[in-house]
Amino acid sequence: FKVSVLEKSSLHPKPAGLVLQYGTAGFRTNAKQLDHIMFRMGLLATLRSRKTKATIGVMVTASHNPEEDNGVKLIDPMGEMLTATWEDFATQLANTEQKELLAALKDIINKEAINMKLEAEVFVGKDTRSSSASLSQAVLDGVHALGGQSKDYGLVTTPQLHYMVCCQNSHGQYGEATVEGYCSKLSQAFLALSKNASNRTDDQKHLFVDGANGIGAPKLREVESHLKKQLQISIFNDGSRGKLNHQCGADFVKVQQKPPTGVEISPGDRCCSFDGDADRIVYYYTDSRGFFHLLDGDKIATLISTFLKELLVQAGLDLKIAVVQTAYANGSSTRYLEDTMKVIVRCTKTGVKHLHHAAQEFDIGVYFEANGHGTVLFSKTAEEKVQLLAKSTNINDERKRAALLLQNTVNVINQTVGDAISDMLLIEAILAIKGMTVQQWDAIYSDLPNRQLKVTVSDRRVIETTDAERRAVSPAGLQEAIDGLVKKYKQARSFVRPSGTEDVVRVYAEADSQESADALAHEVSLAVHRLAGGVGAEPKPLH
Ligand code: NG1
Ligand code: ZN
After folding, report:
1. Of the N and C termini of the chain, which has fewer Cβ atoms inside 10 Å?
2. Where does ligand 1 bind, in terms of residues with CB under 6 Å?
3. DSSP letters of 252-318?
4. Residue of 27, 460, 501 with the most ligand 1 atoms within 8 Å of its CB, for mutation
5. pLDDT band at 47 (very low <50, low <70, confident <90, very high)
6. pTM surpassing 0.85?
C-alpha cells in the first residue's frame, strides 16, 4: 500500500503547520482546509474497518454550521459514533506532516495489530454543501489508497448513513441498507401507528417543514411518497433558492427563538425545522397574538417519554425508562419529568455520544439535547419483551394494542443516532394517537425564559468544568462570580463551557422572566470576558 498511499496523498497535501482536532462532532472548519483531512479519514476508516472486521461509515457534513464550512465524522459498526481511542488516532493522523504520513499509518497499524490482508469496506455519504462533492471524493481516494472497498451513497442525511452502516453490519436485521429500505421501514411503522388515530381532518394532518436548505428536504420528499397522505407536508427552505442554514434551520430557530425566514405561517400552524444534515428537529407555532412558541428537544423528550410510559403501563411491561439531558435542558422540563412524570432523569456532558452512552444503561433511554438532537434506545431485553407480547394471543385487547403500538414505535425510531425525519414521524404519530394539538403539547409545562450567548476568549481551554459542565473549576473566581450573579435573580441558573465545535465560550442562563434571563446571561458573559481572557470589546447588554 505504500506506493499507492504516497502517490494518492500527494494529491491531497496537508498545508504545513495546520493543526485540527477531532472534536464533539468530528473535524469541522472552513471547507478549504479539509481536503487532506478527508483523504486521511478515508485511510483511517479503512483501518478501522479491518480492525473491527465490519463496515465503517464516513459522513461529509458540517451540520448546522454555515455553507462555507464542512466537516467529517466516522461511524462505527453498529451505527454509533467513533470510539474515543480512535478519535485520538484521527487527530494524530490529521496533524501529521506530509512526509511522516506513512510512519503515522504504520504506527496505528502496529498499535492496533491490524491485519492489512483483510478486506475492508467503507460507506460514504455527503450533505448538499458545494464543497461536499470533492471532499467526499477525497475520502474515497483515501479508502482506495489502502485497498478498501467503498460504497458511495451520495447525498444522504447523517442519520441515514448511520442507519446504512448498522443495517449492513447486522446483516439486514435492522433493515435493508438502502435509502428505499430506510423509507419503507419508517413509513410502514408510521402508517401502522397512524391507524390508531381516528377521524383526523386534513388540517390536523398538515405539517410545515423548514428543510434548512439542506439534505433533509429532498430526503423527506422521498419518505413522504410512502406515507399515503397520512401526513400532509409542506416543505419550505428546500434548497431550491435560499442558502444552507442561513436564517433558517433548527439551530437558528432554537438559538434566536424565532421562526425561520422563507416561510409564511399562520397562527396555530404546526411547524418544524431540521438542521443542515437532518439530525436535529425542533417544533414551533405562533399563537393568535403573534407570539412565537418553541417546542425544543426537551419538549420532544417529554412527549415521547410520557407516551412510552403510558404504553408500558397499559401493556403491563415492567421496563425501566429514563430521560437523558444535558445542562442546556430547560429547568422546567427536568422538574416536570422528575416531579410529575416520575421518570429517572440523567444529565451528561454536551455531545450526543455522552447522552447515547447514558441512555444505554436503561431498558428504554430517551435522550435529547435541548437543540433537538435525540432519539430513543431500547435494550435487547426491552425489544424482546415487546416482540413477545405483540405476538402473544392470550392477552386482553388493551394490552395487545399497547404492545403493537410499542412494537411500531421501536420500528419508526432510528436508534443509531438522532434523526429529524424519524423523530418527526414519531412525534406526528403520538400527536395523532393522543388527538393532541401542538398547543396542548406545549402546555404540558412552561419553559423558563432563557438565553444563550457566545464570548470570544484567547484560549477557550482555560475554562474547565465539572458536574456535567454545570460548574466551572477554572479560571479561578469564575464560578464564584457566576454564583453571585445567579443569586440576584429568581428561579435562576447559569453555566459556561467551551464549545466543542466553535472557537467560543458558550454562556447559558435561565430565570423567571426574559429580562432577567437576558440580564443574567449578559452579566455572566462579562465575567467570562474579564476572568477568562476575553478578546475584543466587552459584551454589550442585550437591551
Ligand atoms: P458545542 O459547540 O460543543 O456547544 C454544539 C451543540 C451540541 C452538539 C454539537 C454537535 C449546543 C449548546 N451545543 O456543540 O449540543 O449538538 O454542536 O453538533 O447546542
Ligand atoms: Zn446536524
Report:
1. C
2. 24-25, 63, 328, 350-351, 369, 371, 373, 499-502, 506
3. HHHHHTSPPSS----TT--EEEE-TTS--EEEEEE-TT--EEEE-HHHHHHHHHHHHHHHHHHHT--
4. 501
5. very high
6. yes
